[in-house]
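Researcher: Next entry: LacI-family transcriptional regulator (Streptomyces albus).
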Amino acid sequence: MRHAAPEGGAGRPAAARPTSRDVARAAGVSQAAVSLVLGEKWRGRVSEATADRVRESARTLGYRPNLAARNLRLGRTRTALLVVPALTNEFFARVYTGAAEVAADHGFGVVLYPSPGGVGPARDPFDSARALLDGVIASSMAAEALAAIRGDELPLVMLDSDPADSRGAALVNLGIAEGMRQVADHLLALGHRRFLHLAADIDSWTFRVRARMLAERLAEAGAELRTAPTPLSVAGAREAAGSALGAPGSSPTALVCDDDLLAAGALKAARRLGLRVPEDLSVTGFDDVMLAGAVDPELTTVHLPAEEFGRQGMRTLLTVLDGERPAPLTLPARLVVRGSTAPPGARGD
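Model: Predicted structure:
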């Protein structure tokens, strides 16, 4: 007796699962090249353009390797943990999107774990992280959570972290110092000489770098700088900026914020005090999340490539899992000039 061929919906024959040969044919490369690219071992063997073409062909065809045998052989769960400060932060949501995209291309899943309270210690969300995870990608802002989940005992990639204190992890960083340098140079070129730094009150390398670069550039220019620490929230920034702007003494003409969220609070504080932005006070942010284009005026800020940050974090973890030691990587930051900055002058400066 002959058995009927399996069928798809509406009585149609089920579509054959795409193979690596199909991907190779679509991309115009060999199956060996497909294996190198999808195994993240292509660097130095095929061009970046070829790697992009193979990945795009795999996505278009819906190709997924049959991983069961490979997982059994390697003893892997095909699961990575992404440790971030908070789920409510758009920047880290975009980091997750990028990491999950690359993970899916390689048959991995990404578990997103926010450190409770944003930063600091966390409870272990697993009975045994070592048994359930292949590796960890962690933001430096949530680094303390690693101790609780024993993440530093697993293959580890640190994001936006101090190269001098990397815990032996692979590093993917952002051009934070360069971004703040661009902010300082932009405002100095506009003629500003009295600055207020609205600084996140979080003891994290990424914020220390911002503060250090801003202070160095302004000192070189002989400019005045005051600092107002603030919680990383709109309400906290509004109160901190309001107190600092209303304090006795010379009034700043430029307010540099560590984050777009802080800049939104600073704009609220300026309005409460009757200050016009940018005529009386220039305001800058950092990150370039959607909020930067939603406030009025739109925010001059530093664009950080959040999704690419996540992609590179996951690619780096895959490289580590393959037994290689990737070189530290820094993604560029770029100043985006919008309507919240202008030369000083409306107040007689």
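Model: Note for the record: Residues 158 and 291 are 26 Å apart (CA to CA).
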